[in-house]
Write a structure and sequence with these properties.
It is a single chain. The protein is mainly β and 76 residues long. The protein has a single domain, classed as RNA polymerase II/Efflux pump adaptor protein, barrel-sandwich hybrid domain (OB fold (Dihydrolipoamide Acetyltransferase, E2P), Beta Barrel), CATH 2.40.50. It is 0% helix and 53% strand. The chain has a 4-stranded antiparallel beta sheet, with no helix packed on it. The chain has a 4-stranded antiparallel beta sheet with strand order 5-4-2-7, with no helix packed on it. It comes from Aeromicrobium piscarium. This is Biotin/lipoyl-binding carrier protein.
Length: 76
């Protein structure tokens, strides 16, 4: 089962923290958005492995946009 890690706010993808294949736990930071000079983490909604990164650093994302996919069938 693949679960998307979604942006909680409109912002610029400042930094991608996780890479494809990295293990993550619930709440681990996958990427960091920058908006109004604040850094907002995008966190993994489930434990597993990052199967795909869907954005690039510098890209603008909207609230609810998927930033990465987490394969929750594999344990972290």
């Amino acid at each position: 089962m693949t679960v998307p890690a979604r942006a909680d706010i409109v912002g610029n993808v400042w930094k991608i923290v996780a890479r494809e294949g990295d293990p993550v736990g619930i709440g681990d930071t996958v990427a960091i958005l920058e908006t109004m000079k604040m850094e907002i983490p995008v966190v993994a909604p489930a434990a597993g492995h990052v199967s795909r990164i869907l954005v690039a650093e510098g890209q603008i994302v909207q609230e609810g946009d998927p930033v990465a996919e987490i394969d929750a069938t594999l344990s972290a």
